[in-house]
């Protein structure tokens, strides 16, 4: 039973692999593209091909870049004294959107996981230790997710960095902006109590 | 404040225009693509560019095709006596997935809308009238959505086809497969009652 022509079905199958899109929404997205072939589809295909060719990992921090060094590592205005360690490039982007951090980053590319056999080498943790030894770094901020995996990884990194004598910190815990106590989980409320500050 | 490199931001902006994706999920999708550059991103960019170049509207029925005639119109096994009129290519795909129709299609490309000034010419309705006159068509099935716009369009087409003497039908109304009466709207239940059949 004929559906769409083969190439279109192949495109739908590829689109359906994207996170947030299933077979049905991929079909809808492709149909939308087909209706706007010159306006959206061709520019999108070109942009994607261009990025696929130029994008690479920054050799220092692991951020995604179109150069050997990412814009943050290449920026002389960014402080060299503080390194913020994040799990993923999306976390780096989130921190940059929030503003307020003017140091540099180190992207792990995931968290330690015995189940998925992700060890320290796969996470660029040895690279981080080397960076601390080589550069004049005074502080490492572990901006990892507040999940079990994130915190396990944070503990491992803190231990690995202990011999270097660098100051290691993690993100503050507490009530998020706009947060209502009634809707917060117990762990957050307990953490906020423990992290109470005098006003 | 630097976020992602410019080309990546441009790609995210293009992806965010797809239905079902917003700025946030487009960012996630692009990040996923960036992690699988050779495995997913390049094939996707190539498939998209290829489809953008080859896809066109079938000159007879308006289905999307990579040829002048779509596979259905080109198939000699598909009956020429019955034409099924649909709003959109996605409806045609849905009918083909369901199976059970072996005739040919006519894709309107939308519904009549005074507000959006969509008239009969924009919907290929004159083409349909010409097709009925030219080919030996005995029946036209109006498989339009059961919405106000779909039914308005169906009424208009039925009137436009009246002089040709062709038999015009619409899809049956009633309880959908697996439907529970308690959860059905009043309109559907009333329609199912009106369309009751002796067993």
TrEMBL record, chains A, B:
Residues 81-176 form the Toprim domain. The keyword Metal-binding applies. One of its GO terms (biological process) is DNA recombination. One of its GO terms (molecular function) is DNA binding. It comes from the Bacteria. Keywords: DNA damage, DNA recombination, DNA repair, Metal-binding, Zinc, Zinc-finger. A zinc finger (C4-type) spans 58-73. CDD domains: rubredoxin_like (cd00350), TOPRIM_recR (cd01025). The keyword DNA repair applies. HAMAP family: RecR (MF_00017). Belongs to the RecR family. May play a role in DNA repair. It seems to be involved in an RecBC-independent recombinational process of DNA repair. It may act with RecF and RecO. This is Recombination protein RecR. The lineage of its organism: Bacteria, Pseudomonadati, Pseudomonadota, Alphaproteobacteria, Rhodobacterales.
């Amino acid at each position: 039973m004929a559906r769409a022509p083969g190439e279109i079905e192949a495109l739908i199958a590829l689109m359906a692999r994207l996170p947030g899109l299933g077979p049905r929404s991929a079909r809808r997205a492709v149909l939308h593209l087909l209706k706007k072939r010159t306006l959206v589809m061709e520019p999108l295909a070109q942009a994607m091909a261009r990025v696929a060719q130029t994008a690479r990992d920054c050799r220092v921090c692991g951020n995604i870049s179109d150069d050997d060094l990412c814009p943050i590592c290449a920026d002389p205005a960014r402080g060299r004294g503080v390194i913020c360690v994040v799990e993923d490039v999306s976390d780096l982007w989130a921190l940059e959107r929030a503003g307020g951090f003017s140091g540099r980053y180190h992207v792990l590319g995931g968290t330690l996981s015995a189940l998925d056999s992700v060890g320290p080498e796969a996470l660029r943790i040895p690279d981080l230790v080397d960076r601390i030894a080589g550069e004049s770094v005074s502080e490492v901020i572990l901006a990892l997710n507040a999940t079990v995996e994130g915190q396990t990884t944070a503990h491992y990194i803190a231990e690995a960095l202990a011999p270097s004598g660098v100051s290691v910190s993690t993100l503050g815990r507490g009530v998020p902006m706009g947060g209502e106590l009634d809707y917060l989980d117990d762990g957050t409320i307990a953490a906020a109590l423990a992290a109470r500050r005098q006003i």
